[in-house]
Amino acid sequence: RQPSPHVRQDGQPVKQTTGRHSSCRKPKKNSDETRNTDLTKNTERPQSFCEKVEAVAMDAFAGYKKAAARQVPHAVEILDPFHIVKLAGDKVTAVRCRLQREATGRRGTRTDPLYRGRRILLKTASLRTDRQKKRADELLGDPSNKPLALAHGVYQKIIACYAQEDRGKGRGMMAELIESLAVRGSAPGCPGLVTLGRTLKRRMADILAFFDHPNGANRPTEAINGRLETLRGHSPRLPQPRQLHH
C-alpha cells in the first residue's frame, strides 16, 4: 500500500498549499540535527589535516567552539569580526524598531524618520555623505532617541577597533570597550547592549585573538554568503542557495 502524499513518514500531516507552489514538501530537519551534522563534517578529514590547522575563525554559536576544541584543540579560536559587527548592528536595529513602536504603536513606514534612517545608522560614520551625516545627527540628537544613540555609539566603536591599522592599538580599544560594557548600569534603557556586553565578555579571548593573527578572518567566505543572501532576497522564486560553511 502506498503511503498517503498528505501524511509524513512520522504520521504528521503535511501543510497543503495552492497554486504553482503546491507540493508535498519534505519535513525540515530541526536545527540541532542540522548543526550536529555540520559540526561533525571535519571528522572525515585525515588526522594530518587537523594537525595543520593553526586557527579557527567562527561566529558566536557555542557549538562551533565546542567542535573546534574537540577536533583541533591546538588551534587558536577566533571570533570573526564580521559576526561581531553584525551582532552590534542587530542591537542598533532592535533599539530603532522598539523606539518606533513606542512612539507610533506600529512598524515604521517611509515617512517615519527612524525608518528612513535605518541604513544610514548601519553605515560606517566616516563613509557617510554630508546629507547622511546631517540626518544621522538629527536622529541621534533627539532626546527621545537616547538609547539608539548609545547603541549606535557602541556599533561605531567596534567598527573603529577593527579599522585600526595598528593592531595593538585596535586590540587595546576593543578590550577597553568590552570591559566598559560589562560594567553594571553602562547601558541605561538599552537591555540589548547588556546582552551584547555579556556575550563579548564571555568570548573576550576569542575576540582579541583576531588582533594577534592577521589572517584570522572569513572575509571572502562572508562576502560570498552576503551576495547569496542578496540574490535570494531579490529572486524569491529561485531555490535557496546552500550557504558556505567555514
What labels would you give this structure?
single chain; 246 residues; mainly alpha; two-stranded parallel ribbon; 12 helices; 2 strands; globular
In whole angstroms, how far apart are the ends? 44 Å
Strand order within the widest sheet?
Answer: 1-2
Question: What are the secondary-structure elements, in order, as H or E?
Answer: HHEHEHHHHHHHHH
Let me know the number of strands.
2
Specify the overall morphology: globular
Q: What's the story with the biggest beta sheet?
A: 2 strands, parallel
Q: Report the portion of residues in β strands.
A: under 5%
How large, in whole angstroms, is the Cα Rg?
A: 22 Å
Secondary-structure-based class equals mainly alpha
Which spans of ≥5 residues are poorly predicted at pLDDT below 50?
Answer: 4-11, 16-27, 32-37
Number of continuous helical runs: 12
Mean pLDDT: 81
Helix proportion range: 40-55%
Protein topology:
Elements: H1 31-39, H2 47-52, E1 55-58, H3 62-71, E2 76-79, H4 81-104, H5 113-116, H6 118-121, H7 130-141, H8 146-163, H9 167-181, H10 191-202, H11 204-208, H12 219-234
Helix pairs in contact: 4-8, 4-10, 8-9, 9-10
Structure description:
- This protein is mostly helical.
- It contains twelve helices and two strands, in the order ααβαβααααααααα.
- The protein has helices at 31-39, 47-52, 62-71, 81-104, 113-116, 118-121, 130-141, 146-163, 167-181, 191-202, 204-208, 219-234; strands at residues 55-58, 76-79.
- α3 (62-71) links the parallel β1 and β2 (76-79).
- 19% of the residues are buried.
